[in-house]
Write a structure and sequence with these properties.
two-stranded antiparallel sheet, 4-stranded mixed sheet, mainly beta, single chain, 0% helix, elongated
Length: 107
């Protein structure tokens, strides 16, 4: 599963998910057919108890009090506590994730 691990630095979290190139196209598809789209559901919960099924946790420095969630093309900012926060990540399935849950809270 090379490249499918959740990783983090002091200020950034990377969560690999399903991409369009991961979806198999039917053998009957013509080159003119549109490529399939990948849909990924991301839920961010701020506060509350840690995720019981988190596969990964990390401390992130968020001095701005904002966490950008998205990819290179689009994203949204979520208000989080400023300073160091604990982020828990749960994905389903773990490889080529289609559902991602994040829980962010101050320890």
């Amino acid at each position: 599963m090379s490249g499918s691990s959740v990783t983090a630095s002091r200020t950034c979290l990377v969560v690999p998910v399903l991409h369009a190139q991961d979806i198999e196209t039917p053998d009957t598809a013509s080159p003119d057919d549109p490529l399939p789209l990948a849909q990924v559901e991301v839920t961010v919960r701020v506060g509350g108890p840690p995720l019981a099924d988190a596969e990964f946790t990390a401390h992130l420095l968020r001095d701005s009090g904002r966490l950008k969630v998205g990819d290179a093309e689009a994203g949204r900012e979520v208000q989080v506590p400023s300073g160091v926060v604990l982020v828990g990540v749960a994905r389903s399935p773990a490889e080529f994730a289609e559902v991602v849950r994040l829980c962010v809270h101050r320890e």
